[in-house]
Amino acid sequence: MDIISEIAQDFMGLFQAGGDTFVSWVTGIIPMVICLMTAINSIIKLIGEERVERVTRKATGNIITRYTIVPVLAVLFLGNPMCYTFGRFVEEKYKPAYYDSCVSFLHPVTGLFPHANAGELFVYMGIATGITTLGLSLGDLAIRYFIVGLIVILIRGVCTEKIYLYMVSKYKGTQSEEVAENV
């Protein structure tokens, strides 16, 4: 009978852990994200949406800055998950690639700017422990992660953009053929 009781307690423990996680979100990350969203929206309103849009349209007009500068600034200033909200200033056809760039940069940024994605810090710290055990420089690791991250987000952004635009053109082509058949 003791084993059945232990299994039941362990089973309920799973739900207790889930409830604790949910409460930590409700009291931690959700209010922070709401406050951050309010602050960013207030700043945008103070500056003027037209001005902010003009600057970001200029920054996203170039394929290199679209997938390096804009995601990096969004990740550094807003962190995860708020960095995705900068996508509202990106043209609709570039949004999937912008999102991919942001997501791809959230890990490499952790070594230099842990505030940007504290949830990934445990991964970086695990690698950092191995590097320091070998007697190597942690600063070099962080800088290399950052530089490689910039290269990766540019490559991923460009590739995702090309794939997305190709798929959209194929979909629109299919739509045109269906319309022509029905006429």
From TrEMBL:
The keyword DNA-binding does not apply. InterPro entries: PTS_IID_sorb. The chain crosses the membrane at residues 22-44, 64-87, 121-138, 145-167. Keywords: Membrane, Transmembrane, Transmembrane helix. It comes from the Bacteria. This is PTS system glucitol/sorbitol-specific IIC component.
